[in-house]
Amino acid sequence: MSQQKPAAGMESKCPITSALEVFGDKWSLVILRDIFFKGKNHYREFLASPEGISTNILASRLKKLEAEGLIDKRPDEANLSSYLYTLTDKGKNLLPLLLEIVKWSARYNPQPHAGDNIIAGAPARLLERYEEDREQLIEEVLGALE
Amino acid sequence: MSQQKPAAGMESKCPITSALEVFGDKWSLVILRDIFFKGKNHYREFLASPEGISTNILASRLKKLEAEGLIDKRPDEANLSSYLYTLTDKGKNLLPLLLEIVKWSARYNPQPHAGDNIIAGAPARLLERYEEDREQLIEEVLGALE
DNA sequence: ACTCCCACTTGTGTTTTGCAAGTGCTTGCG
DNA sequence: CGCAAGCACTTGCAAAACACAAGTGGGAGT
């Protein structure tokens, strides 16, 4: 079920192409960002993101991300009528990629000033730390997910 | 500063969202990959990639990438009826991001064996070098673009 | 002048996405 | 219990993006 294999008879693909098949769409990385940097875990929280993902697209993306093994879905013990979406190791290992995106974007697509989230709100400090001590920053962000 | 709610039509965007608006589609990174790793520079070369991009989509992506300042378009001095598409500095600085994708993909989406391109063909060696001496690898790939 | 090659554009059908509304299960409350 | 409210979706339909095939116009070669 969680096994990912190249379809039979399929041309072998380059790493970039196969990665794009997993998260190379408009919404997957936004969802992962919400988990990594905003501490979101619920369907309703992803829906509330300012980008405004549609309910059907969100549902299908969560299903796909789970099928690809990037996230796990389980009942929320604290609220039995809802579910928790959390990163698997495979998903967590996308953090360096996300940080490279933030780094590039901070350099070339500077934003005026944003409010209430770690990456939009404090990219400069985050990136400073990224340059200084990348590994520890990664550990720290991952630690905050628990 | 005061926290700013996303006002109608003018919400401040996070670095990830704004980056995805630039290259977060099915084809942009494939085109950039062709330039970075396959040394391609012509419309017809991008068209010949095994992924099979459509002519209209390729044209629109090249236009968009140029508009975003990731690539330059200029006449090919060696063949005046065609154009060269080359990376700008802004585009070149996406290399670390591409390499992170390759790294993640090599780890979690392993490919059997591929033929004739640097990343699909020799990801292991490339990534070994990435771990050992990231900066020099980046310099080297960029140097090969000249 | 005629034919290639080249970088596109145009037209048409299909797939993906966006939006609004609805569904079914669960929970809290009188 | 009965009922409303919250939750995670699903469904139906319109709009947009995309794939595919064909065509266009300019330049170069012969």
Number of domains of chain A: 1
> What is the CATH class name of chain A?
Mainly Alpha
The ordered string of helix (H) and strand (E) elements of chain A is HHHHEEHHHHH
Strand content of chain A: 5-15%
By CATH, the superfamily of chain A comes out as Winged helix-like DNA-binding domain superfamily/Winged helix DNA-binding domain
- Sequence of strands across the biggest β-sheet of chain A: 1-2
Give the overall silhouette of chain A.
globular
Q: Based on helices, strands and strand pairing, what is the structural class of chain A? A: mainly alpha
Low-confidence stretches of chain A: 1-11
The proportion of residues forming helix of chain A, as a percent range, comes to 40-55%
Explained architecture:
The structure is a homodimer of 146-residue chains. With 146 residues, chain A is mostly helical. Chain A has one domain: Winged helix-like DNA-binding domain superfamily/Winged helix DNA-binding domain (Arc Repressor Mutant, subunit A, Orthogonal Bundle). Chain A is built from nine helices and two strands; from the N terminus they run H-H-H-H-E-E-H-H-H-H-H. Chain A has helices at 15-23, 28-38, 43-47, 55-67, 89-92, 95-108, 118-121, 123-132, 134-143, and strands at 71-75, 83-87. The first copy, chain A, has a two-stranded antiparallel ribbon. In chain A, a hairpin with a 7-residue loop joins strand 1 (71-75) and strand 2 (83-87). The longest helix of chain A is centred in the C-terminal third of the chain and has 14 residues, at 95-108. At the A-B interface, helix 1, helix 2 and helix 6 of A face helix 1, helix 2 and helix 6 of B. Chain A binds a DNA duplex (30 and 30 nucleotides) through helix 3 and helix 4.
